[in-house]
Write a structure and sequence with these properties.
Blueprint: E1 2-7, E2 12-13, H1 24-48, E3 52-55, E4 60-61, H2 70-80, E5 87-89, H3 93-98, E6 109-112, E7 117-120, H4 140-146, H5 151-161, E8 170-173, H6 197-212, E9 217-221, E10 228-232, E11 236-240, H7 254-257, E12 260-265, E13 269-274, E14 280-285
Parallel strand pairs: 1-3, 2-4, 3-5, 7-8, 8-9, 9-11
Antiparallel strand pairs: 1-12, 6-7, 10-11, 12-13, 13-14
Length: 286
Amino acid sequence: MLAIDWFTDLHLPSLDHRASDMSAAEQTDMRETILKGASAYAARLAHERGDLVVNTGDNIDTTPDRVVDAWLQATVRDIFNPVADALHMLPGNHDIRHGIDPDFIQTTKVIDADEATLIFWAANVQPGKSGTNIRLSSVPQLRHKFYKATQDDLVDLARAFDQCRPSRPVLLFTHVPPNDDATHNPVDNDERFNPLRSHYKNGALALNILKQSGCSVFVFSGHRHLNRETAHGDRIRLFTMDRMTRWEDMGEHRPAGINHARIEIGKTSLTLRRSGVMPLVRTYAF
């Protein structure tokens, strides 16, 4: 059996957008609270981890025009350093926008395990292209335009699926879920308000690659801030995960509230065990 610890969308909050409303003592208290919760989770992760640890992005959060404080990047590093030898981290749009430790940047990768083919699709993170130098331009329009699945990303995904075998399932990890119906939010569907809409157009192309592969595919992603399962035919299941609770409001329950799930793959089935504030256990045959 192959065991994978999967988590996503921590959204550790910066103090940048709260500093004007907080006293120095309140800022210090909030930093200590965040660090305490992060340290507790790091200890649990190091103790309970599976064979692999996968992070599908959006570890940090701040206002759109700010680069994240060094202390917040250090907090992310403290969480994942104990499992660095087993870690696969895929940056999300917040990581790309605000800054991420360059040691954690990964491009698209395929692992051919006995139980399954694992694909880590790092859409939008390509060597030598604008944006791989930790963060993007400070111009919002350029950031949004850049954060979408490019034609090169689709080529990478197709090549990855060329390595899959119909006799075994494929586990695809990525930040934004491939989706063929865009979003049901009318604001998100209006390009005047959401420049990211173009991502979903390419998302339909990505989903088509999955459909044409002939493999049973399980997709694990974040981004949408939903705990949801979507089926596309008999062979494709998309899972999104989110804690549904603000980091600051978790208090002593913070380590349990982080978006975490254990994925266990055997010879004939996959079991998903989601922890946190909305626990779930489901098993799927393939």
